[in-house]
Amino acid sequence: MTGWHAPDDLITRYTDGGLPEPDAWSLEKHLEGCAACAARTSRAARTGTAGAGGGGVGGAVGVGGVR
């Protein structure tokens, strides 16, 4: 893993289904190895909020699992 984390707007577009497919694939690959971004993405899919605060799951989101 690099030190990069997905910005909130990228996660929001992903969970809203508005991210172009190549970008979604790239984010999904990142989510496989980054528990912090996976938790934020999971929370965004459930609540519509991608911010860093609040709860979330500790594991990775499966590929295509949050569309």
Would you summarize the structure shown here?
This protein is an all-alpha fold and 67 residues long.
Topology, element by element:
Layout: H1 8-15, H2 21-33, H3 35-47
Helix pairs in contact: 1-3, 2-3
Describe this structure in words.
The chain has 67 residues and is mainly α. The chain has helices spanning 8-15, 21-33, 35-47. Helix 2 packs across helix 3 (35-47). The longest helix is centred in the middle third of the chain and has 13 residues, at 21-33. It is globular and about 25 Å long. The termini are far apart. Mean pLDDT is 79; it is low at 53-67.
| pLDDT averaged residue by residue | 79
Task: Name the poorly predicted regions.
Answer: 53-67
**Secondary-structure element pattern, one letter each:** HHH
Quote the distance from N terminus to C terminus.
Answer: 23 Å
- CA gyration radius, whole angstroms: 10 Å
Strand content: under 5%
Give the quaternary arrangement of the chains: single chain
Structural class: mainly alpha
Helicity level: 40-55%
* Secondary structure: number of strands: 0
* Shape label: globular
Q: Major sheet, described briefly?
A: none
Query: What's the total helix number?
Result: 3
